[in-house]
Amino acid sequence: MYKIAVIPGDGTGPEVTREATKILSAVSKKCGFTCETITYDFGGERYLRTGEILPDSAMEELRGMDALYMGAIGHPDVRPGILERGIILNLRFSLDQYINLRPIKLSPGVESPLKGKGPEHIDFVVVRENTEGIYAGAGGFLKRGTPDEIAIQESINTRKGVERCIRYAFEYCRRRNKAKKLTLCGKTNALGYAFDLWDRVFHEVGQEYPDIEKDYGHVDAICMWMVKNPEGFDVIVTDNMFGDIITDLGATIQGGLGIAAGGNINPEGTSMFEPISGSAPKYTGKNVINPLAAIMAGQMMLEHLGEVEAATLVERAVMEVVRKHMKSMDAGKMGASTTEVGDLVVKYICSME
Ligand code: IPM
Ligand code: MN
Question: For the chain, N or C: smaller number of CB within 10 Å?
Answer without folding.
Answer: C
